[in-house]
Automatic annotation (TrEMBL):
GO terms for cellular component: nucleolus; preribosome, large subunit precursor. It is found in: Nucleus, Nucleolus. This is Ribosome production factor 1. SUPFAM superfamilies: Class II aaRS ABD-related. Transmembrane segments: none annotated.
């Protein structure tokens, strides 16, 4: 069709263009050959779809108001989370086997209050400024953590030195093209070791409406949606980084939220506006983790025994199946 012809696109007298556009049921934008016209018609089609959706929503709301208490319950929308494929390794809090494993695993000394967390944070060789600042800010989030730089030292030599100095965990921040892109978390002295892909890193100065600098108070820790046996282990690893008794006077909270196997980290401060209203300020930094592997023992790239490895072609066959 020539430009300017077709339904709703002619010039001259007639109703406004927004009223003239009436797409037939079999209308397909992809059949339009002209690129500009195709893009224009697609925008019009999307606008019409939005109007129809809004009109239907208003109609349903009026029907519910007219019915009052007799209105049927609202339908629960289908999402990827609530359509999740059931995982046979989902943890039951009352399971005796799970309780026994928790009492005998590598984190039992921490949860029995026999050890106090002491964290070493280091980087890949020759870290750039952004990675250095991220490590310094991460050290203000995790109490009793110390930042040291690698200077060419291999991790296999760092780990014995950490154990000799009573460090309970080792965090390694890797980078690529000056951007932090990986995190290795190793629990000492017996493991396990988790390797994460890191993305969406935001430093404090890059966060809008951020609060003041965090204080030295020990924060609360919130772990969300770590429901499987694997997720339970990862959640216990994160919990073991922080002291047992949070100092509530600091009003700070560190959150690890698992959603679709992506772990979102946020650091906030509570703001009590009144007796009933509570607001939050994000303090930063923020980042997102994706588990790539879980290894028994401490870091060993050659001879390490892996409990779990993310294999995309085998494991990501369904969008509704999650592992954490």
């Amino acid at each position: 069709a020539a430009p300017g012809s077709g339904p709703g696109l002619g010039h001259g007298s007639g109703p406004p263009a927004t009223e003239r556009v009436l797409f037939p049921p079999t209308f397909s934008v992809s059949e339009i050959k002209n690129k500009q016209r195709r893009h224009f018609m697609f925008l019009r089609w999307k606008q019409q779809q939005r109007k129809e959706k809004l009109a239907l929503k208003k109609k349903r709301r009026k029907e519910r108001e007219a019915l009052g208490d007799k209105a049927p319950p609202k339908a629960i929308p289908k999402t990827i989370e609530n359509q999740r494929v059931y995982d046979e390794t989902t943890v039951d809090p009352n399971d005796e086997e799970v309780a026994f494993d928790e009492a005998t695993d590598e984190f039992a000394p921490y949860f029995n209050r026999q050890t106090v967390p002491k964290i070493l944070i280091t980087t890949s060789d020759r870290p750039r400024g952004r990675t250095v600042r991220f490590c310094e800010q991460l050290a203000t989030v995790i109490p009793n953590s110390h930042v040291y730089y690698r200077r060419g030292l291999a991790l296999k030599r760092i780990i014995p030195q950490c154990i000799a100095r009573d460090f309970t965990d080792l965090i390694v921040i890797n980078e690529d093209r000056k951007i932090p892109n990986g995190l290795v978390l190793s629990h000492l002295p017996d493991g396990p070791t988790a390797h994460f892909r890191m993305s969406s890193v935001r430093l404090r100065k890059e966060i809008k409406r951020k609060g003041k600098e965090p204080t030295e108070h020990a924060p609360e820790v919130i772990l969300n949606n770590f429901t499987t046996r694997l997720g339970h282990s990862i959640g216990r690893m994160f919990a073991a980084l922080f002291p047992h008794d949070p100092q509530f006077i600091g009003r700070q909270v560190a959150t690890f939220h698992n959603q679709r196997d992506y772990i979102f980290f946020r650091f906030h401060r509570y703001i009590f506006k009144s007796e009933k209203k509570v607001g939050i300020q994000e303090l930063g930094p923020r980042f997102t983790l994706k588990l790539r592997s879980l290894q028994k023992g401490t870091f060993d790239s050659k001879f390490g025994e892996y409990e779990w490895i993310h294999k995309r072609r085998e494991m990501d066959t369904s969008r509704r199946k999650f592992h954490l």
